[in-house]
Amino acid sequence: MPGQKLSFPGRNYLFAPGPTHIPTVVQNAMNVPMEDHRAPDFPELVKPILRDLKKVFLTKTGTPFIFPATGTAGWEVALANTLSPGDKILTSRFGQFSHLWYDLAKRIGLEVELIDTKWGNGIEIEKFKKALANDKDKKIKAVVVCHNETATGVTSDIAGLRKAMDQVKHPALLMVDGVSSIASVEFRFDKWKVDIAVSGSQKGFMLPAGLAILCFSKKALAMRKTAKCKRCFLDIQDHINTNKDGFFPYTPPVNLLRGLRVAIDLLLEEGMENVFARHKRLANGVRAAIKAWGLKLAASSPKWQSDTVSAIWLEPGSKNNPDGKKAMEVISIAYHTYNISLGAGLTQVAGKVFRIGHLGDNNETRMMAALGAVEMAMIDAGIKFTPGSGTGAAAKYWTSNPNKALKKKKKK
After folding, report:
1. Are 356 and 370 in contact (CB under 8 A)?
2. Do the domain assignments include residue 7?
3. How many domains in the chain?
4. Long-range contacts for 326-329 (Cβ within 8 Å, ≥24 apart)?
5. What is the pLDDT of residues 264-323, one digit of tens each?
6. How far is CA 209 from CA 95, 181, 249, 273, in A?
7. What is the C-alpha to C-alpha distance for residues 236 and 63, in angstroms, rounded to an integer?
8. What is the tens place of the pLDDT at every residue in 212-258?
9. Under 8 Å between Cβ of 97 and 203
10. How far is the C-alpha of 211 from the C-alpha of 239, rounded, in Å?
11. Rounded to the nearest 10 degrees, how much is the dihedral formed by the CA atoms of 162, 167, 172, 177?
12. At what angle do helices 43-57 and 254-270 cross, to 10 degrees?
């Protein structure tokens, strides 16, 4: 068919930072006949999922919600169920997704105090602390932040932000976009005293897009009683009314729920601490490869470097990218010649970076395949580096730092 991609032997490999690979057992769990979502035994699926999501968020007091939507809808769920038109929030823009949440807040009628931050940095905690300390009348109702900014491969310090909020004794809600961090890198809902966490099914949860997965604190739940933002489909009250009995207020995507059940099982079987450690270990290997290629990350400092995605800088006019086209060439060659999908740069970094996602259902072997394909694409794009240097550096890192959880499992 016109425009259809030619068939390759093997399969396309996803190394964008989402959607991610779907494990075979999860895929199989979704390949079931249509089910009655009002059946008497349907709560036997729903109630355990909602219970076990708390273990993924690392909360005992939070309340999870599942909407048939995406992370973008999750942002609106968080804001609309707790705030009223004209309420003020404090946020930061340091990448495409933090910008989009800021834009959504403005479009639904909220007042936004914005801390604009250089792309490549994470949230600047001292600036947040100063803004909150200066808010003598406590007009700021929520602090809204992106934990992991996939556009630049930057992870921010949510624990540090909570500490700063506590130090100035500010009562604002803490809302966190964890779409590309939750179920992948360290995220502690209770310990960090997060009020609303937003995630999506297509990243660390290893599913197709289609579920917005959230968690509300008791404080955030109480805010729904005074929130005046208009809401209908995204109203958590309808879920509260039906979830307690194991149902949904409207038709849910049951096949995705079946997949989510198995995905949660995989995460909990591995153990969340081991999930966090695996992502850090894989990311360190990828970063070793990037350094060996002589390239740099968009993240401006090691403290910002994301364990779920690496945005690799190819600055226009540099020796590696003299015509400013190399980043897109690498992505195009990787896709059309080697059947691998990489992430592109977005808005401010469009054409300046290509991104390797290393989150979800990944291990050393799969990441070695990604790095090898990237090396071939860079050779074809005319980027100067020593072929094999990146894969060699990653192999050296991973063999020198074996997976401790896997070793313990083998001993058992």
Report:
1. yes
2. no
3. 2
4. 326/381, 326/382, 326/383, 327/351, 327/352, 327/353, 327/354, 328/354, 329/377, 329/380, 329/381
5. 999 999 999 999 999 999 999 999 999 999 999 999 999 999 999 999 999 887 777 878
6. 21, 15, 20, 25
7. 11
8. 999 999 999 999 999 999 999 999 999 999 999 999 999 999 999 99
9. no
10. 14
11. -10
12. 40
pTM value surpassing 0.90? yes
Structural domain includes residue 318:
yes
Q: Classify residue 19: in a domain, yes or no.
A: no
Same domain for 349 and 282, yes or no, is yes
**Residue 9: band (very low, low, confident or very high) from pLDDT cuts 50, 70, 90:** confident
- Other beta carbons within 10 angstroms of residue 179's beta carbon come to 30
Q: What is the dihedral sign for C-alpha 89, 92, 97, 102? A: positive
**Residue entry with tokens 């489909």:** 233
Nearest to 353 by CA among 307, 310, 396: 310
State the Cα–Cα distance between residues 143 and 134, nearest whole angstrom.
Answer: 14
Q: What angle do CA 262, 265, 268 make, to 5 degrees?
A: 155
Q: Could you tell me if 83 and 236 are in contact, meaning their C-beta atoms sit under 8 angstroms apart?
A: no
pLDDT category at 147 given cuts 50, 70, 90 is very high
Among 269, 302, 335, give the residue marking a domain's end.
269
> Looking at residue 5, what is its pLDDT?
55
One-character DSSP codes across 309-374: EEEEE--TTBTTBTTS-HHHHHHHHHHHHH-EEEEEP-GGGTTTEEEEE--SS--HHHHHHHHHHH
- The reply to whether 281 and 389 lie within a common domain is yes
CATH classification at residue 388: 3.90.1150.10
Question: How many residues are given for the chain?
Answer: 412
Closest by CA to 193, choosing from 167, 214, 163, 235, is 163
Q: Output b/e per residue, 383-398; b: 16+ Cβ within 10 A.
A: beeeeeebbebbbebb
For 187, the 3-state DSSP assignment is coil
Tell me if residue 144 falls in helix, strand or coil.
Answer: strand
> What is the amino acid identity at position 288?
A
Range of the domain at 196: 25-269
Instruction: Assign 285 to helix, strand or coil.
Output: helix
Domain boundary among 219, 240, 269: 269
